[in-house]
């Protein structure tokens, strides 16, 4: 793995951004930081680099997202779906055009955000549903494997429930802690586990931990309405990025 100053600088910034999202919103928006890494390394190397950093950051975040912030009834149905989705995502990576999945997920996410903006079906509090939770967990597992973007499907299930901002963040954090543990092995298996690789991981970890701390401070400064608006805004940003990646991949651009 290239160990130049440029690679180190971009990696530290990208990991800091991802850690910030973890602290502020519980995770699920890693795709916002990944394009930065793509400037200095290929996506496979980026995924391998992030795998151990995600796990370390997840456990560090337990000091903020403690068990009292987890919605256990929702996790009870989301996590089995996640397990199925991660396996399905691996199959998709091997046999299906991943860019088609990106486009479908992006369009669905943008429609979801548009309905909220219009005050439609996703506005306000909705009762939890076992079937919807299983579907959301599965979709998140697939997209987190094929595009490092498991946040939109999970958010589309959790946001309409009207959870408190702490419960939303904690549930999201725990969900992706499990997901990142599941993904770590496969990603490390394809990585270049040289001394340089682990050296870059060690350099990036402080930035990840600082990002979590800074994000947690922002989380406490946001009220419930601001938190929901910020989450929907991030959904739109993530969806646009997914849509671009999907269309560019299908069309063969870049």
UniProtKB/TrEMBL annotation:
Coiled coil: none
Domain of life assignment: Bacteria
Topological relation to the membrane, as annotated: Multi-pass membrane protein
Cellular component GO terms, alphabetical: plasma membrane
Annotated compartments: Cell membrane
Listed transmembrane segments: 7-40, 46-63, 75-93, 99-117, 133-159, 195-215, 227-244
Name of one Pfam family that matches: TauE
Keyword Membrane: yes
InterPro entries, A to Z: TM_pro_TauE-like, TSUP
Keywords recorded for this protein, A-Z: Cell membrane, Membrane, Transmembrane, Transmembrane helix, Transport
Similarity comment: Belongs to the 4-toluene sulfonate uptake permease (TSUP) (TC 2.A.102) family.
PANTHER family: MEMBRANE TRANSPORTER PROTEIN, TRANSMEMBRANE PROTEIN YFCA
Protein name: Probable membrane transporter protein
Organism of provenance: Achromobacter deleyi
């Amino acid at each position: 793995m290239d160990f130049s100053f440029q690679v180190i600088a971009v990696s530290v910034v990208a990991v800091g951004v991802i850690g910030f999202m973890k602290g502020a919103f519980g995770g699920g928006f890693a795709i916002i930081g990944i394009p930065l890494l793509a400037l200095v390394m290929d996506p496979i190397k980026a995924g391998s680099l992030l795998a151990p950093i995600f796990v370390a950051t997840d456990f560090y975040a337990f000091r903020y997202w403690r068990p009292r912030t987890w919605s256990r009834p929702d996790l009870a149905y989301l996590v089995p779906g996640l397990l199925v989705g991660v396996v399905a995502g691996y199959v998709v990576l091997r046999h299906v055009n991943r860019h088609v999945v990106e486009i479908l997920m992006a369009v669905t996410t943008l429609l979801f955000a548009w309905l909220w903006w219009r005050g439609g079906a996703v506005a306000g509090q909705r009762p939890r549903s076992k079937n919807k939770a299983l579907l959301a967990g599965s979709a998140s597992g697939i997209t987190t494997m094929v595009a490092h973007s498991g946040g939109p499907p999970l958010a589309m299930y959790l946001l309409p429930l009207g959870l408190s901002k702490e419960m939303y963040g904690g549930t999201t954090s725990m969900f992706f802690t499990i997901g990142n543990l599941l993904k770590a092995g496969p990603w490390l298996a394809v990585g270049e586990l040289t001394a340089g690789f682990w050296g870059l991981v060690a350099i990036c970890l402080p930035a990840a931990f600082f990002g979590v701390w800074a994000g947690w401070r922002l989380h406490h400064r946001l009220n419930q309405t601001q938190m929901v608006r910020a989450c929907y805004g991030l959904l739109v940003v993530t969806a646009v990025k997914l849509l671009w990646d999907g269309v560019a991949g299908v069309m063969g651009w870049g």
